[in-house]
Design brief:
Structural class: alpha+beta
Strand order of the largest sheet: 1-2-3-4
Order of helices and strands: EEEEHHH
Strand content: 15-25%
Number of helices: 3
Radius of gyration: 13 Å
Number of strands: 4
Number of domains: 1
Distance between the termini: 13 Å
Shape: globular
Helix content: 25-40%
Length: about 110
């Protein structure tokens, strides 16, 4: 899991301006999905990869971009996310996995 810092207009449960990102393997497709969270409760998968190392690379790219403050507006963040490479359609995760990721995101603020 990677942490990045920048700006977010959502009321954070994490530290101010913090984004948490990581990867998780989908239990059915077995693809590695990158996810982000601005609050710890808003887990969003944004890319899907056949190879774990590709997912790790994208998660690190997200954290690096956020920590460098490259994207200031919602439009810039959306364009950046849409520009990230992905191998497949993102499949929804089961609720129990989303809850585990939320706990990881919230514990990352320590």
């Amino acid at each position: 899991m990677f942490k990045g810092f920048g700006r977010s207009k959502k009321k954070p449960m994490l530290e101010d301006n913090q984004l948490t990102t990581g990867i998780v393997q989908h239990p059915v497709t077995l693809r590695w999905q990158t996810w982000i969270s601005f609050t710890g409760h808003d887990i969003q998968c944004i890319t899907a990869h056949n190879k774990r190392e590709d997912a790790n690379r994208v998660a690190k790219q997200i954290a690096d971009a956020w920590s460098q403050g490259k994207y200031k507006t919602g439009e810039e963040v959306t364009a950046f996310i849409q520009s990230l490479p992905t191998d497949a359609v993102i499949d929804p995760l089961p609720q129990n996995i989303v809850m585990q990721l939320s706990q990881k995101a919230l514990s990352a603020k320590k």
